[in-house]
Amino acid sequence: MAAAPVANYVPFVRTGNLIHISGQVSNDGKGGLKGTVGADLSVDQGVEAARICGLNLLAQMKAAAGDLDNVVRVIKLNGFVQAGPDFYDIPQVINGCSDLMVAVLGDAGRHARSAVGMYKIPLGFAVEIDAVIEVLDRR
Asked: Which PANTHER family did the record assign (predicted)?
């Protein structure tokens, strides 16, 4: 189920055949994965946090597009990792989401992306990822 926003924004915006999905954090509904990757969380925990973000993105995609079958392509992911001062495996962490997109959507899940280390992520979550997707024109 798609999560509701926690501040003054909407979960997604559609313009033409593109949908911009707001950042989804590593919240699995049971507290999620919070912390700093490379300090108090391992790389594997970071990968799992990114996977959780991916599941949340898929829920938003379904809500925005009506059905995942209407997703033509994941255009871009922007991944943000709350990273320790000496942690540089940020792309490996974001692979948790990238790999999920391809596993669920096949070639339509292949995308451009950014993977960035951050000092802090809202609410203390380990990872946040936003997306731009293309959907079928059903208007």
From this structure: ENDORIBONUCLEASE L-PSP_CHORISMATE MUTASE-LIKE DOMAIN-CONTAINING PROTEIN, ENDORIBONUCLEASE-RELATED
24: which 2 tokens? 């989804």
Residues 6+ apart with CB under 8 A from 106: none
> What is the per-residue pLDDT across 12-46, written as a single tens digit (0 to 9) for each?
999 999 999 999 999 998 989 999 999 999 999 99
Best CA proximity match to 63, nearest among 139, 133, 128, 113: 133
Predicted pLDDT of residue 42:
98
Q: Which helix (H) or strand (E) holds 105?
A: helix 90-105
Q: Which residue has the tokens 């871009």?
A: 76
Cα 50 to Cα 116: distance, rounded to the nearest angstrom: 12
Nearest to 79 by CA among 106, 101, 107, 63: 101
